[in-house]
Amino acid sequence: MRRDFLRAATLTAAAAAVPRAGEAQPAPATAKRPVTLADWGSFHVGGKEHVVSGQPVREVLFSPGGVPAKVDPNGTYLIGGMYAQYMVPEPARGRFPLLMWHGGGLTGVTWENTPDGREGWQHFFLRRGWPVYVSDAVERGRSGWTMLPEATGGQPVFLTLDNPYERFRIGDGPGSYARKTTLPGNQFPADDASYRNFVRQCVPRFTTTDALTLDAYLALLDRVGPSVVMAHSQAGLFGWRAAQERADKVRALVLVEPATVGDPAKVAALKDVPVLMIYGDYIAQDARWPTIRANGIRFAEAVRAAGGTVDVVDLPERGIKGNSHMVMMDRNGDEVAALVQDWLAAKGLWA
Amino acid sequence: MRRDFLRAATLTAAAAAVPRAGEAQPAPATAKRPVTLADWGSFHVGGKEHVVSGQPVREVLFSPGGVPAKVDPNGTYLIGGMYAQYMVPEPARGRFPLLMWHGGGLTGVTWENTPDGREGWQHFFLRRGWPVYVSDAVERGRSGWTMLPEATGGQPVFLTLDNPYERFRIGDGPGSYARKTTLPGNQFPADDASYRNFVRQCVPRFTTTDALTLDAYLALLDRVGPSVVMAHSQAGLFGWRAAQERADKVRALVLVEPATVGDPAKVAALKDVPVLMIYGDYIAQDARWPTIRANGIRFAEAVRAAGGTVDVVDLPERGIKGNSHMVMMDRNGDEVAALVQDWLAAKGLWA
After folding, report:
1. Rounded mean pLDDT of chain A?
2. Can you tell which superkingdom this protein's organism belongs to (chains A, B) (predicted)?
């Protein structure tokens, strides 16, 4: 009853605040429930030095009308650091902090809002008493990026407007963005203004920085201490691997549409880490996701065979239908969040 | 009395939480005063389309062990959007939202923390009842970047470890980073761990995207409505220019070490916008800052001649000494924030 009321309230706020490039916008709706924070802030962790030499000195005019400065590109750079922002609610009910790790080509904004202006999963879990840490993976967002291909292994990939529409199981196959035809019953807010808001959240994606990124996530766990890790898509890799490297610090692993698996040689390390894997809708008809999911389920079976606990949830089988790859942004995303919340509570991680 | 108590408390927290790459860290100190938020969230504004054609299709393996996908780089991109995060305290005392615009080569993190782990100016003003909006300028942080030099006018500049130390009036001139010698009495937290935290906040700096960035700031003002704008360094340009373009929406302009001035042809547009300009220490002996400040003061005089109100504060003349270019991060940064707060209150913008 209460949940239905809240959903109606947030949808009303969303309808009033759908942003669109270049248009005047109302201020965000403020008729929401307040939250009290015991603490909030941000920091960077991890990273390493990288030395460049033999490059010419440049003169740079940083601002028009300013005074030029000589910039020597030779020297030592810090690369591979990672940004995290934390909010600690009062009272706290989660027994450990909840670390939210976004997927490829995106930043922590994934968890902060939905493209149609509703509250994101950051709000959902903070409102339920979880200390929430939202980070930007290495080379993305506020973690910065290195601009030195030789330090990061290559150039990132930057996506056109139509790519996520067709690859994230929003549109009904190739050419669907041009046709503006979504998969039937799709819950992603795919109206033009909302979809463009989503694309504005996308950033160039490095495909060659997994080792740097894993190191930074381990540094985050070492700083924060025992935590629940929630990872989406590409970050499935980092969630699995981080739990394998820091089984004492990952008290539970929630994988939302994980794109990859962990290290098959270290499945035994996961035996005391409860894992929840969640997959959305339209997978059977997709070109890539049947294989991605099958790999995930096979890995889950290997973890179970080594004594671990992995719960795999197929959302349509549970009656939760229409989910794209961006589950947390879908119109029914809070139903999925509630399922995660219930699972965490059942594991004794919330009081 | 109360302020002294708070400062002592935050310094203690900072001493317990100085992060350093690769080292285990304690969780952030939580013995701080709670704050109640009526609302918080984030969004993107602005941006435009950019079309690419004639490029070959690539096959990309997004994640190791994943399934390759074809990526067509041709098509329409959204570029120049801007990210903003807002926090609305309860009760609110600022009469308008406070928009915090960071300087070049940085992101909104500038306002969120100090490199030695104290609370940033975001905390300072939020705790005094200002609804605070912290944004990442175009092509930086969570605003993403375009990876298309032809769309943004060129390659950005990425700084080595020693560059800000010597250019931001922390070290005592060329070679000071290697010597680890700061300007006498310098208030920037320049111990090795803190300084590296600051460098981890730095991101590649585009010097060719001023028009895109100004457009995005105007879109932000159009969305949020009448606001107080606080701008640092490079963003001095955007603060002045945005106030000239949206004099009805910029109710006051606080410029912290502005690196550039506004449009000399439009000084009359500023006659009803009260402006505060703040300059730190060590300027006379710097290679570039005497000229930068003289340009700023000359522009202020032109604005006054056109009927405007500009207060210029030289911090050392006020007895606030030792400030680097990163005033908000200096150990005495809260003294400067208090000066800003008093000025805003005197202008009737806080109740």
Report:
1. 90
2. Bacteria
Determine, for residues B42 and A109 on separate chains, whether the beta-carbon distance falls below 8 Å: yes
Q: For residues B11 and B335, what is the distance between their CA atoms, to the nearest angstrom?
A: 14
CA gap B284, B277 in Å, rounded: 17
Return the residue matching tokens 């996530």.
A217
Of B42, B65, B234, the CB nearest to A112: B42
Cα→Cα distances A267→A101, A108, A193, A302, B120, Å: 21, 28, 43, 7, 42
Transcribe B153-185 into DSSP letters.
Answer: TS--B---THHHHHHTT-BSSTTHHHHT-BPTT
State the Cα–Cα distance between residues A340 and B32, nearest whole angstrom. 30
User: Which amino acid is residue B230, in one-letter code?
Assistant: M
Q: Look up the ipTM and state it.
A: 0.90
Give the model's confidence band at A123: pLDDT under 50 very low, under 70 low, under 90 confident, else very high. very high
Burial label for B20, CB within 10 Å (0-12, 13-18, 19+), is: middle
Residue B58: which residues within 8 A CB-CB, separation 6 or more?
A: A157, B70, B71, B73
Determine phi and psi for A311, rounding to 5 degrees: -100, 125
Tell me the pLDDT tens digit for each residue of A66-92. 788 888 889 999 999 999 999 999 999
Query: Which amino acid would we find at residue A259?
Result: A
- Domain A36-346: CATH class, spelled out: alpha beta
- Closest in B19, B157, B167 to A43, CB measured: B19
Answer whether CATH 3.40.50.1820 is correct for domain B2-15+31-346: yes
In single-letter form, the type of residue at position B346 comes to A
How far apart are alpha carbons B100 and B81 in whole angstroms? 17
DSSP for A133-183, please give it: EEEE-TTSGGG-----HHHHTS--B---TTHHHHHTT-BSSTTHHHHT-BP
- Say if strands B275-279 and B310-314 run parallel, antiparallel, or are unpaired: parallel
- A263 neighbourhood in chain B, CB within 8 Å: none
Tokens representing B7 are: 């400062």
Contact A140, A82 (CB under 8 A): no
**Residue A343 CB contacts under 8 Å (≥ 6 apart), including other chains:** A254, A276, A311
pLDDT at B16: 33
Instruction: Of B333, B7, B321, give the one whose Cα is nearest residue B341.
Output: B333
DSSP state of A284: T
* From B69, B104, B199, residue closest to A63, measured CB to CB: B104
pLDDT in tens, A144-165: 998 787 888 777 888 899 999 9
The sign of the dihedral angle between the CA atoms of A167, A169, A175, A179 is negative
Give A-chain residues touching B22 at CB under 8 angstroms: 46-48, 219
> What residues in B contact A112, CB-CB < 8 Å?
41-42, 85
Specify the pairing of strand B250-256 against strand A310-314: unpaired
- The answer, yes or no, to whether residue B192 has pLDDT greater than 60, is yes
Structural domain spans, chain A: 36-346
Contact A108 B142 (CB under 8 A): yes
